[in-house]
Amino acid sequence: MKTFTVKTSQRTEILDITHQIQKAVTDSKVRNGICCVFVPHTTAAVTINENADPDVPRDILMKLGKVIPFDDNYRHTEGNSDAHIKTSLVGSSEIIIVEDGRLVLGTWQSIFFCEFDGPRNRRFLVKII
Ligand code: ZN
What we know:
Layout: E1 2-7, E2 13-16, H1 18-28, E3 33-38, E4 44-50, H2 55-67, H3 81-90, E5 93-99, E6 102-103, E7 109-115, E8 121-128
Antiparallel strand pairs: 1-8, 2-7, 3-5, 3-8, 4-7, 5-6
Bound molecules: zinc ion.
């Protein structure tokens, strides 16, 4: 298992981590298998979506913010319930097929780390089988 650190700079932010994960696959020398990406946080997540237009991740954050507002009479006293809910909806892991030493992603797909309660120092884990 490989651990990566991410330093986020905003409260909500989506960062492309595809390059780091591909490097982990390359370094592992696994040619064919499965790559699991896991985010061990309760207010950050991982997703796969379009990398070509930066407005796509922006729109995802904008819409999540509207559907799950920061303030909504939540009971959790830490003041970050929206971030917990967004994390559960987006998810804590992704599985990507590895073929010939490459992540199998669609032309426009990237793997994104999703910060919902930053800025913070974060981690994500990669296991290649
Ligand atoms: Zn909390």
